[in-house]
């Protein structure tokens, strides 16, 4: 199994709380490459408000990194994306093309307040779907309401949402409770993506291989290949998973 796809990370330098410099971003890519990752969708944080144009600044920084990365890691593919903090302006911003989707597809990575209510989560996901987007909920393990009731994750998937969790949560770095919850999701095959959500080369680096080994051993080769490779490929082709 090779060619992992990382759909969530903060690798673009100096645009959010991720990489501080181009050199740090390149060191992150070096780690990602050594872990077997061959496709990276960069997802800087976006809290969009109507009339705000952050896209051009983000695209400039992304292009600069992409050119350097291509020289150093010709086998690694870099795509643009974003991690959207959902608000009532999100669908408007997407439709105005002011918020980057994942790899220029209809897939969007969205996050919410960890303490948000289920009905807010549900109506936001509905709004994105009605708007024509395929929402991927970032680090699903962070939402209190979902940790309390796994059935709600099922319901979100039935509505058309896709589910992402962080590699660090599987490793237990975000606490036992989150780890237990992610393992339950894996056991029931409710996860579509595991991503690094990496923010640096030392703190929260883009490590993934250990999780893949765990997933293969406990949940089977086929499902592991889906969540680390195949679903990402479908996403980039804008196909349904
Ligand atoms: Fe993130």
Description:
It contains 10 helices and 9 strands. The protein has 241 residues and is α/β, with parallel strands linked by helices. Strand 6, helix 4 and strand 7 form a beta-alpha-beta unit. Helix 1 packs across helix 2 and helix 9 packs across helix 10. The chain is globular. It starts with a strand and ends in a 5-residue tail after the last helix. The mean pLDDT is 96. Bound molecules: fe (ii) ion (FE2). The site of fe (ii) ion has 5 residues, from loops. Fe (ii) ion binds next to loops.
Q: What do we call the CATH topology?
A: TIM Barrel
Structural class: alpha/beta
Write down the domain tally. 1
Number of strands: 9
Shape summary: globular
Termini, distance in Å? 19 Å
Return the CATH architecture. Answer: Alpha-Beta Barrel
> Which CATH class is shown?
Alpha Beta
Give me the secondary-structure topology.
Layout: E1 4-6, H1 22-34, E2 37-42, E3 45-46, H2 55-72, E4 77-80, E5 83-85, H3 90-95, E6 107-111, H4 118-130, E7 134-137, H5 144-148, H6 151-159, E8 162-166, H7 167-171, H8 176-187, E9 193-195, H9 209-219, H10 221-236
Parallel strand pairs: 1-2, 2-4, 3-5, 5-6, 6-7, 7-8, 8-9
Helix pairs in contact: 1-2, 9-10
The chain binds fe (ii) ion (FE2).
